[in-house]
Each structure stands twice: as structure tokens, then as C-alpha cells.
Design brief:
410 residues; alpha/beta; Rossmann fold; 2 domains
Length: 410
């Protein structure tokens, strides 16, 4: 049975993340399974000024008979701005729900989930909590919040979402396992509404690289070098590579950290002559990845990261590029071990020794195929769409049917 869905996202559709992790799913779910989407998103003012991009996204949504309603995202003062957005979004969602009689709301992350919870309280319409990770704990882990009133308030809201949502979607099985330890959840009765859907990749955009690993090897890096990510261990990997072959190359794709990266190279007395640092659009990234032999990235192993799934992992694996990374990040270790498509370096291990083991993976003849198999099993858009459709079909809409019958009898 196809469903009418109000999808609410506090991430903008005009941002690359919204386009790849919301719109691609919505299009496939609409075309393959007949679901109807109204997408309510909060967009940055600067993005809304780009009329050409606004029209492009609008046309894309119309292409699968969806409707997109962009609201303006307000940033400051932080708390008041967010509360204003929540109030605006809730009032609009109530009006839309009265008109279209949605079967349920799909809410992406914590702010959107509050709108979903309020709608359920006021109209009894079910909602999905697509949590994307432990947001409050992420804020504490990065030092943005203390474990004060704001943190405790958001954790209280998290509890309400987990209890009252008709379905909860986590990026990792490790995240679900952790939530099943929460004292207000019953692992026997609540487990059935928890689902793992990792960040997925349109594999059609990331074909397996035809480049065969050869000396000198090329290390690749895509994404942020600060924040959650630790660039120093990656630089150390490059230093190890240089000792093996001074002509080794390092291809870096990064938007905002060029100065930081160059300063780190200088601090570590590492030459830059075989290093390329460039900013690329998302559609240019596959071409850059195709020139790499392997990638390395390390994320700070905070508590909150057990519920994470790095988007870049699926993209590299889809192109047959093996990955060297650190522990404690969602299901990454299990995923890489499944087809021997990478290696996780634990804190008690030497990077030198681990890299020697990793070289065996790089040089193995089936590695590219193994990486692609891993991407197809864990990160394909088709898999994610199939999982979402299964969740959508099994949302309890008995209450919705009751409301329709009652209104028809008025």
C-alpha cells in the first residue's frame, strides 16, 4: 500500500546532504513503490538566494510528483531561533495534515522529531524518528555543550521520541544495541520498531575504479580535516608511505581546511611537492577518487560515534578503494571485515605494523571487487530504499483509518 508522507528535515534540500540523503530516497520510493511525499525543509537564507538552484530542486521534486515547501532556517539567537522554527514548522505541518491526511510523518533528526511529537500529541498522526545519531551526546563530545540544562532537556526529548515514535531509524546496529540498554526501553517489546538504515550511496555515480595499484601508491582523502576528524594520523600514514617510496602521492579533496592542512604539513616537516589539495563539487569527487589507491580517515572515538556511519566510506568502497580507519565508529569494523575491504587500527596497535597488514589488502587481486561487494551489501541506495519501504509498509496506520471513517460519517 502506498502512503502519503510528510517528510520534515531541519537539513536543507539545497545542501548536498539534503539532496543525496533525502531527495534521492524520496524519488526512488515514489517511483518504485508509489509513496507520495510532501517535503518540509528549513533552508539557509544564503541558499534560498540562489534562485537557479531553488528552481532545480523544485523541478527535481516535481519530477516524482512530490511537493517541496522550503522554510527559512534561523540561526541566532540559537535557542530562540530554533524554537521559532519549531513553532513555524509545527503550525504549517498541522495545516498540511488537515488538508492531505498524511499516513505518517518522517522526521529527520532531533529538531524535526519535536515537530513530529507535537503533531502526534495534537492529531495522533504517527511519526518516524530518523535520528541520524546521538545528537545531544555529539554536542557534549565536541565541547559545544556541557551536561547542563540544555543537554538534559534534549536527552529528555530523546526519551519521548524513542518511546512515542512508531519507528526509530538508526545509522548503525551498534547504536540500536546501545539504546536497548536504556532503562526506559524494553528490549523485547521495543526492539521491533528499531531499524538500521546506514547512509547510502547512489552506486551509479561511483563506478569501480579501473586504476590498478602501482608504485608509487597514491593515498586519498575526502572531507573535513578538523572537527570530528583527526588528520594527524592520516599525515602519519603518508609519512610511512614516503619512507617506502619518496615519490608517493597524496590527493586531498577538502572544502575549508586548506590552511590548517598546509600548516600541519609544515609542523610535521613533511614535503608538499607530491600533494594536491583541492576543493571540488560533489559530482567531481568520483573522478578524483578514481586516481587514488587507498584512503585513510580517523574519527575521534567518542561515545556518540557508535551511532554514526560515515558517508564517504560507501563512496570509496563503491569505487573499489580499500579503507584504513580507526575503531568505535558505528558498524565500520564489522563492515570492513565482512569482505576484507579495509582495516581498523586499534589504539594499542602501531600504525607502522597496521599499515604493513593493510598493504596486503591493497595488493590483493580481488580487493577492488571485495570493496564493491561491501558497498552493494551495506551502502547501496537500492538497499536503503527497500528498507525504508519495509518500514513505511509496517507503520501502524489503524488510527489514521479510524479518523477517516469518523470524518466521513460527520
Amino acid at each position: 500500500m502506498s502512503k502519503r508522507i510528510l517528510y520534515i528535515s531541519y537539513d536543507g534540500m539545497l545542501e548536498p546532504l539534503g539532496e543525496s540523503q533525502v531527495l534521492q530516497y524520496a524519488k526512488a520510493l515514489s517511483e518504485n513503490y508509489g509513496h507520495s511525499f510532501t517535503i518540509l525543509s528549513f533552508e539557509k537564507s544564503s541558499d534560498l538566494k540562489n534562485k537557479k538552484n531553488v528552481e532545480r530542486i523544485n523541478s527535481f521534486v516535481h519530477s516524482f510528483n512530490g511537493k517541496w515547501i522550503p522554510l527559512t532556517y534561523h540561526k541566532s539567537p540559537t535557542l530562540l531561533a530554533t524554537l521559532f522554527d519549531i513553532a513555524t514548522g509545527t503550525l504549517l505541518a498541522i495545516r498540511l495534515n488537515r488538508k492531505k491526511k498524511f499516513h505518517f510523518l518522517h522526521t529527520r533528526s532531533y529538531v524535526s522529531a519535536l515537530i513530529g511529537l507535537l503533531i502526534k500529541i495534537t492529531t495522533k498522526t504517527p511519526f518516524i524518528f530518523d535520528m541520524r545519531g546521538f545528537w545531544a551526546d555529539e554536542k557534549v563530545d565536541t565541547g559545544s555543550w556541557s551536561k547542563g540544562v540544555l543537554y538534559k532537556s534534549v536527552k529528555w526529548l530523546e526519551k519521548q521520541y524513542l518511546i512515542h515514535a512508531s519507528a526509530v531509524i538508526s545509522l548503525s546496529k551498534a547504536g540500536i544495541k546501545e539504546m536497548m540498554t536504556f532503562d526506559y526501553l524494553d528490549s523485547n517489546s521495543d526492539m521491533k520498531k528499531f531499524h538500521c538504515v546506514s547512509t547510502c550511496t547512489n552506486l551509479d555515480n561511483f563506478s569501480i575504479s579501473k586504476k590498478k595499484p602501482a608504485h608509487p601508491l597514491t593515498l586519498g582523502y575526502v572531507g573535513n580535516a578538523q572537527g570530528w576528524y583527526m588528520f594527524e594520523p592520516v599525515l602519519e600514514i603518508y609519512q610511512i608511505l614516503l619512507k617506502r617510496d619518496s615519490n608517493s602521492k597524496f590527493e586531498i579533496v577538502n572544502q575549508n581546511d586548506h590552511e590548517y592542512i598546509r600548516n600541519l604539513f609544515k609542523k610535521k616537516n613533511t614535503p608538499l611537492q607530491n600533494v594536491t589539495i583541492q576543493s571540488l563539487t560533489h559530482d567531481q569527487v568520483p573522478s578524483a577518487i578514481s586516481q587514488m589507491d587507498f584512503t585513510a580517515f580517523f574519527i575521534k572515538p567518542f561515545y556518540s560515534k557508535i551511532a554514526s556511519a560515515p558517508t564517504k566510506l560507501g563512496e570509496f568502497l563503491a569505487m573499489g578503494i580499500p579503507c584504513l580507519t580507526g575503531p568505535g565508529i558505528g558498524d565500520v569494523e564489522e563492515i570492513l571485515n565482512d569482505f576484507n575491504s579495509g582495516l581498523v587500527v586499534h589504539s594499542n596497535e602501531s600504525l607502522n605494523i597496521s599499515f604493513e597488514k593493510f598493504l596486503e589488502i591493497i595488493s590483493s587481486s580481488p580487493t577492488k571487487e571485495n570493496c564493491r561487494k561491501t558497498a552493494e551489501k551495506y551502502f547501496s541506495l537500492e538497499r536503503g530504499v527497500f528498507q525504508y519501504n519495509h518500514i513505511y509498509k509496517n507503520i501502524n496506520t489503524d488510527l489514521f483509518k479510524t479518523q477517516v471513517v469518523e470524518e466521513a460519517n460527520l
